[in-house]
């Protein structure tokens, strides 16, 4: 059997990883500045993470959600404490798309309405409702297309007000990323977020903050929206939550009523997944990783901001979008093949997306900074060469 060929692959086969480094089957070392799509939050194979998972494997790795699971309770308590959302409750699932799917559904159960507003540039996942609120027609199949999903322009308060004026009584929820990742590291205006919150309150719509990529300390806050002091009704999380072990969650405002069978999953919140997520939170707290994200993010920006070919840097903590004056593909490929550094791209072709582990060290950021400098200055030299010939 062949694999269903949906991924463009680099010809690199990583077989080992530690901290912010990977090694391929030929022994070549790579610096990881992308964390496999923002997943690696506490570094590869962190000793505490490994120990916790190994110990859990020796005890029990799975039973369904029909029995007591104290690890779920421990995870919910720790997540509540570190995020400041202690009075919210937690529904556990397996991925970011699933977290958003459940949030959209829960909002609709809650207020009995069925329309959803989403924003240009959004990415919320590939399952049914999640892909319907994703702004990329190429991945929305006809079966997922529905006029009840309404697209509004990013950071455009006036357009959103018009939509609410026309259809507000039918709008169940508004879904927005804390910071758009796939869209090119787009940061919402504070006034825009605050107006969304007001409109949701005015029209009894649920505000869903998708913190799947921007959450878990990446922005220097636990959730990116916390910088603005707004409180969403539902918050979704995944990616960094398990540092590679699949787990997602929805944080749910106390106003929402749980009833038996309302939501459910076979694998969500299993013992191994909870052990992984607890280990991540322990390391984040013990090693002050939110602070490190702020410090290292500031340092990287300061060091690269004067480099040639950079138009702008969009950044919070270690969620960094470097907008170049050209398609970033060549720069990315030189970083990977000449300097052995993984970076990411985005739907905005000019934006290089940088998402290192939150415990990245200064000397590791220097490797990236120096490599980026060489690559970008190399582009200048070549352009100059081309002009003199
Ligand atoms: C903001 C956001 N939401 C949801 C998702 C979907 O997560 P998953 O791939 O775990 O389903 C992603 C993935 O990139 C994301 O960036």
Automatic annotation (TrEMBL):
Cofactor(s) the record lists: pyridoxal 5'-phosphate
Question: Is Transferase a UniProt keyword of this protein?
Answer: yes
Which Pfam families does the record associate with it? Aminotran_3
Tell me the keywords, alphabetical order: Aminotransferase, Pyridoxal phosphate, Transferase
The enzyme's first-digit EC class, named in words, is transferase
Which Gene3D superfamilies does the entry mention? Aspartate Aminotransferase, domain 1 (3.90.1150.10), Type I PLP-dependent aspartate aminotransferase-like (Major domain) (3.40.640.10)
- Give the family, as the similarity comment puts it: Belongs to the class-III pyridoxal-phosphate-dependent aminotransferase family.
Protein name listed in UniProt: Acetylornithine/N-succinyldiaminopimelate aminotransferase
Originating organism: Chryseobacterium camelliae
């Amino acid at each position: 059997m062949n694999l269903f060929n949906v991924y463009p692959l680099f010809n690199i086969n990583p077989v080992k990883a530690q901290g912010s480094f990977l090694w391929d089957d030929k022994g070549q070392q790579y610096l990881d500045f992308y964390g496999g799509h923002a997943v690696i939050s506490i570094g590869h194979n962190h000793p505490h993470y490994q120990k916790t998972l190994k110990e859990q494997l020796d005890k029990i790795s799975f039973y369904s959600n029909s029995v007591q699971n104290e690890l779920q309770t421990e995870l919910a308590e720790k997540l509540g404490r570190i995020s400041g959302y202690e009075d919210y409750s937690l529904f556990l699932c397996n991925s970011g798309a699933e977290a958003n799917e459940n949030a959209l559904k829960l909002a609709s159960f809650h207020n009995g309405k069925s329309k959803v507003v989403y924003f240009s540039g959004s990415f919320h996942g590939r399952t049914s409702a999640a892909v319907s609120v994703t702004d990329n027609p190429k991945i929305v199949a006809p079966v997922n297309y529905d006029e009840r999903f309404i697209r509004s322009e990013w950071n455009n308060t006036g357009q959103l007000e018009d939509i609410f004026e026309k259809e507000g009584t039918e709008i169940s929820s508004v879904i927005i990323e804390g910071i758009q990742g796939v869209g090119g590291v787009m940061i919402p205006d504070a006034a825009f977020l605050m107006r969304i919150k007001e409109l949701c309150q005015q029209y009894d719509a649920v505000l869903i903050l998708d913190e799947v990529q921007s959450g878990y300390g990446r922005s220097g806050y636990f959730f990116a929206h916390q910088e603005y002091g707004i409180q969403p009704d539902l918050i979704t999380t995944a990616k960094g939550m398990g540092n590679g072990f699949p787990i997602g969650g929805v944080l749910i405002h106390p106003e929402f009523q749980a009833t038996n069978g309302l939501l459910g999953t076979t694998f969500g919140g299993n013992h191994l997944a909870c052990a992984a997520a607890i280990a991540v939170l322990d390391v984040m707290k013990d090693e002050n990783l939110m602070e490190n994200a702020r410090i290292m993010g500031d340092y990287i920006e300061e060091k690269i901001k004067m480099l040639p070919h950079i138009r702008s840097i969009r950044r919070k903590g270690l969620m960094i979008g470097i907008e170049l004056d050209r398609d970033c593909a060549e720069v990315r490929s030189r970083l990977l093949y000449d300097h052995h550094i993984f970076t990411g791209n985005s739907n905005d072709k000019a934006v290089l997306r940088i998402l290192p582990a939150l415990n990245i060290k200064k000397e590791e950021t220097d490797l990236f900074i120096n490599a980026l400098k060489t690559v970008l200055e190399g582009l200048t030299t070549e352009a100059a060469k081309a002009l003199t010939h």
